[in-house]
């Protein structure tokens, strides 16, 4: 299947092929609203999380817990990742998508757990309707992989992902404490030293009929935390209090969302949030998501400490992260369908 970039660049393209056409109820464009400024996505100041002041740290941990409970999305500022490195990584991803079709085919990959895989849509082998999206997925930890093109991609992505891992681990310490657990609880329980980290670059070219197409359908993310940046073009929407809301990313910040495995570990106290990507007819949107998860062999289940303290029954059955990943990646992407399979 040819990439969407090539299709979008076809001379004289004025309509999309029917295989990219979502029905209106799947698309549900009308229900989008802007976020009320009084009820906006929480902002977490990372510098306070690493502060030597116990009061500042305690306050930001409370804010982090509230953000995970009420939104499942938050913006992280003052995160110590150099802006120049963020720009270079975004540029490297754009240069990857600008490779020829033939060059990109070298990295096509066959299996969902192949360490380097590029393609289009989500899982074109099972989908009836395709998404207006090309992607590159690379496993960057515990073993670092990288395509050998374009020049410099490997060195830049190695440094970037290392920096992101440091930010994610500090956030997870704060989330641990916000749940009333030891700060290193998630780190130990999820075997983060061997945790799976995946770089996912997404390209959404201009679409002649954006009201009919979808960049990515409604879904939640597997794993613990995803840190996202984009090239200044908006297109991300999240489901908040039953409404789709547009998300604007603050420059030089990360948009962070909690994944399915935070929901499982917290026994549903913190929820993974359904979100989607819409497309436009003018500009190419590039987003870069770094997914941070447990080790592939970790069986993720609700925290026994939380369950005992709150006298609750487990709301999810334990499942090995690798098995969860294969379930999600081998099927159609559909809201929280895989997480629903492990609910008790």
TrEMBL record:
GO molecular function: metal ion binding; oxidoreductase activity
Keyword annotations: Iron, Metal-binding, Oxidoreductase
Presence of the UniProt keyword Kinase in the record: no
PROSITE patterns the UniProt entry points to: FE2OG_OXY (PS51471)
Domain Fe2OG dioxygenase, chain residue ranges per copy: 194-294
Database matches in InterPro entries: DIOX_N, IPNS-like_FE2OG_OXY, IPNS-like_sf, Oxoglu/Fe-dep_dioxygenase_dom, Plant_2OG-oxidoreductases
Protein name (Swiss-Prot/TrEMBL): Fe2OG dioxygenase domain-containing protein
């Amino acid at each position: 299947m040819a990439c969407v970039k090539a299709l979008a660049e076809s001379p004289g393209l004025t309509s999309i092929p029917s295989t990219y056409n979502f029905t209106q109820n799947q698309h549900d464009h009308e229900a989008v609203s802007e976020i009320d400024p009084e009820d906006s996505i929480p902002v977490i100041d990372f510098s306070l999380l690493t502060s030597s002041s116990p009061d500042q740290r305690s306050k930001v941990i409370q804010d982090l817990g509230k953000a995970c409970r009420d939104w499942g999305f938050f913006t992280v500022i003052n995160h110590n990742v150099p802006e120049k490195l963020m720009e270079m990584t975004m540029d490297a991803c754009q240069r990857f998508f600008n490779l020829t079709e033939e060059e990109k085919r070298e990295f096509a990959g066959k299996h969902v757990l192949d360490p380097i895989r590029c393609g289009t849509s989500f899982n074109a082998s099972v989908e009836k309707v395709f998404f207006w999206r090309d992607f590159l997925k690379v496993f960057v930890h515990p073993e670092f992989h990288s395509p050998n093109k374009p020049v410099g991609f490997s060195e830049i992505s190695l440094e970037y992902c290392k920096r992101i891992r440091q930010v994610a681990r500090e956030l997870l310490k704060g989330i641990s404490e916000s749940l009333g657990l030891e700060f290193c609880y998630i780190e130990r329980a999820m075997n983060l030293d061997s945790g799976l980290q995946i770089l996912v670059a997404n390209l959404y070219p201009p679409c002649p009929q954006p009201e009919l197409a979808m960049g990515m359908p409604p879904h939640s993310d597997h794993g613990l935390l995803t840190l996202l940046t984009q090239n200044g073009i908006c297109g991300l929407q999240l489901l908040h209090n039953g409404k789709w809301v547009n998300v604007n990313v603050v420059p030089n910040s990360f948009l962070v969302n909690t994944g399915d495995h935070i929901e499982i570990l917290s026994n549903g106290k913190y929820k993974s949030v359904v979100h989607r990507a819409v497309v436009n007819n003018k500009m190419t949107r590039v987003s870069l998501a770094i997914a941070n998860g447990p080790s592939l062999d970790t069986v993720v289940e609700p925290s026994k400490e939380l369950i005992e303290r709150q006298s609750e029954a487990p709301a999810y059955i334990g499942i090995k992260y690798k098995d969860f990943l294969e379930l999600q990646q081998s099927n159609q992407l559909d809201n929280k369908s895989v997480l629903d399979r492990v609910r008790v």
